[in-house]
Write a structure and sequence with these properties.
Blueprint: E1 5-6, H1 16-22, H2 32-49, E2 55-58, H3 62-73, E3 79-84, H4 87-98, E4 102-107, H5 116-125, E5 129-135, E6 137-138, E7 143-144, H6 147-154, E8 161-165, H7 177-180, E9 184-188, E10 200-204, H8 206-213, H9 224-231, H10 242-258, H11 260-280, E11 295-299, H12 306-317, E12 319-320, E13 322-323, E14 332-336, H13 343-359, H14 368-377
Parallel strand pairs: 1-12, 3-4, 3-5, 5-8, 8-9
Antiparallel strand pairs: 2-10, 6-7, 9-10, 11-14, 13-14
Helix pairs in contact: 1-10, 2-10, 3-4, 11-14, 12-13, 13-14
Length: 380
């Protein structure tokens, strides 16, 4: 028997109490019972986003919120700056291209974070730039970009907004939207929110809502002004993913029970343990300088097939991790520690890594990675 377990950075494991909440009888989304649930969800999302702004809930993947962020705040022919340091940075550019928004890329080596000075230089060179689009956590590389430093640059410019893809960062690291002056923040249900895929979240600052007033890009399903009007009545513009919203209420209760500060500490500890374990085994991290606490990207050692390494996790031990995307295919594995993870989950993943590497002929001292992880996890 092999027990299947998710160690991918999305979808992530769903707690039993959330599954049970979603298993209840379906309710109608126009009934008072749903409105009561949605009221609690709205307040809970503001808590996680750390904002007084409305956080809109869309029935889509996180990419829907990314698209909505573009088509609601920008206009055809606008100039924007896109940080491209991975697969999802490229997605910002692809969405802009689809809507006729002109983008200037800041191309960053995959595995490295963007230098804020490069953003300052680009904005100074072209004052007409309307938006800076960046990932907080680039899921494809395991990199954390310096969001606060970028926000400090952008918020001084009245004609420019900062749009942040926080899909694999929100609920993992501290991203206080209002305090830092983030203009648009998007996220998704299948990451730290511990839900199945199917919900996207987006919040706009007052500055960003001002940009929305002048946007001329086509929008229908992702019309955020219409969605805002509905949300303020504890409703959605279109039929919501009712069961997922019910599960979301339970997830938000879990966030409040643990407390955001403790959530961030837990993710930081799990991430540090994973990184130190990999290094103890002589493995190289893809993002050693600016790692994300959502996942750890580890380079496949020389002579080891990265695709086979990933496959062996599932075939031998039932652990479903992620491999590399695009130019990193077969070159890295990605082990997640985002959402419903605790200390022993990391020990399990590192144990499997050691055993698999030994099976594949890589010289590994069994227990060395586990010991490194345990020293981190056992510390106060």
């Amino acid at each position: 028997m092999i027990k299947k377990q998710l160690f991918s950075p999305g979808p992530t494991p769903v707690p039993e109490r959330i599954l049970l909440a979603m298993a209840g009888p379906l309710i109608h989304h126009r009934d008072p019972a749903y409105e009561e649930i949605f009221q609690e969800v709205r307040e809970g999302l503001q808590y996680v986003f750390q904002t007084k702004q409305e956080v809109l809930v869309l029935a889509s993947s996180g990419t829907g919120a990314m698209e909505g962020a573009v088509c609601n705040t920008l206009s055809r022919g606008d100039e924007v700056l896109v940080v491209r340091g991975g697969k999802f940075g490229e997605r910002w550019a692809e969405i802009c291209e689809a809507y006729g928004v002109n983008f200037t890329p800041i191309d960053v080596t995959w595995g490295e974070a963007v230098d804020p000075a490069a953003i300052t230089k680009a904005l100074d060179a072209n004052p007409s730039i309307k938006a800076v689009l960046v990932q907080a956590s680039e899921t494809s590389t395991g990199v954390m970009h310096p969001v606060k430093a970028i926000a400090d640059i952008v918020k001084k410019r009245d004609g420019t907004i900062l749009v942040v893809d926080a899909i694999s960062a929100l609920g993992v690291v501290d991203l206080p939207m209002d305090q830092w002056g983030l203009d648009v923040v998007v996220s998704g249900s299948q990451k730290a929110f511990m839900l199945p895929p199917g919900l996207a979240f987006v919040a706009l600052s007052e500055k960003a809502w001002g940009f929305a007033e002048g946007s001329d890009l086509p929008k229908f399903y992702f019309n955020l002004k219409e969605e805002l009007a509905s949300a303020q009545k504890n409703q959605s513009q279109f039929t919501p993913a009712i069961s997922l919203v019910v599960g979301l209420r339970e997830a938000l209760r879990m966030f409040k029970e643990e407390g955001l500060e403790n959530v961030f500490k837990r993710h930081g500890k799990l991430a540090q343990a994973t990184r130190e374990a990999a290094k103890a085994l002589g493995l190289e991290l893809l993002a050693p300088q600016s790692p994300s606490n959502a996942l750890t990207a580890i380079k496949a050692p020389e002579g080891v097939d990265g695709k086979k390494l990933k496959k062996n996790f599932e075939d031998m031990y039932g652990l479903i991790i992620a491999g590399g995307q695009s130019q990193l295919k077969g070159k890295i594995i990605r082990i997640a520690h985002i959402g419903y993870f605790q200390e022993l989950d990391i020990i399990q993943a590192i144990s499997a890594l050691e055993l698999i590497l030994k099976e594949m002929g890589y010289p590994v001292e069994l227990g060395k990675g586990v010991k490194a992880a345990e020293e981190i996890l056992g510390a106060n």
